[in-house]
Amino acid sequence: MSDYSKNKPPKRVPIEGKRVTAPGGVARHTPERLKTKGSKLTPSSKAWLERQLSDPYVQRAKREGWRSRAAFKLIEIDEKVGLLRRGLRVVDLGGAPGGWSQFAIKKGARGVVAIDLLPIEPITGVDIIEGDFLDEDAPTRVMELLGGAPDLVLSDMAADTTGHRPTDQLRTAALFEAAVDFALENVALGGSFCGKVFQGGADAAILQRLKQGFEKVKHIKPPASRKESPELFVVAQGRKRKT
């Protein structure tokens, strides 16, 4: 997951898809306590880093070669509802640093397109777009690279948090709505969607659209999602025939 802040977006680059063949994964290492001698980190930054180092999901991700702990959110959702299987075409919105795409490939996806404002290190079998999904031509570029209707659209997009919860909900809800629009327009018959919202951030009208377009819609908060986090995932399965 990356931050899609409209206030302070990362430096943009032209959208350019490419097929990559280098392996994904991260180096293994044994977690150690944070060394803070001479550090200029703020107390809150030090606390965050200490939490990362002691987080069992972070440690497991490093041991197993996942790009980040966020991979386990999708793994746990998949274990619960069975989103992924061999032969699917998958779109990964807000894909950095790449853990969700890694898992999709491991489950046998035949094609994955990941897009993010932030760079994503190469992953075998994944087409990567570094750019803003909210750009007008981004959805078309995603579909061109995928080469067919997606069977599954994933969205871990979230806006930078401001500390003002209603604002954060609204900004992330706008990204969620963009992901829903893309899914309803493009997902293949019988396909699925999984997108992140903050608690209270998905309004009834958007959820109703999903219920009209898919057979089953539910909210899931996987164990890998920290208890203090307001994030939830909306899972919609069984794309209905368009009327």
Question: Topology, pairings included?
Answer:
Blueprint: E1 18-19, H1 43-54, H2 56-64, H3 71-81, E2 89-93, H4 99-106, E3 111-116, E4 126-130, H5 138-146, E5 152-155, H6 165-186, E6 192-198, H7 204-213, E7 214-220, E8 231-239
Parallel strand pairs: 2-3, 2-5, 3-4, 5-6
Antiparallel strand pairs: 1-4, 6-8, 7-8
Characterise the protein shown here.
The chain has 243 residues and is α/β, with parallel strands linked by helices. The chain has a domain at 70-239: Vaccinia Virus protein VP39 (Rossmann fold, 3-Layer(aba) Sandwich), CATH 3.40.50.150. Helices cover 33% and strands 19% of the residues. It is built from seven helices and eight strands, in the order E-H-H-H-E-H-E-E-H-E-H-E-H-E-E. It has helices spanning 43-54, 56-64, 71-81, 99-106, 138-146, 165-186, 204-213; strands at residues 18-19, 89-93, 111-116, 126-130, 152-155, 192-198, 214-220, 231-239. Strands 1-4-3-2-5-6-8-7 form an eight-stranded mixed sheet, with helices on both faces. Helix 4 links the parallel strand 2 and strand 3. The longest helix has 22 residues, at 165-186. It is globular and about 55 Å long. Mean pLDDT is 83; it is low at 5-37.
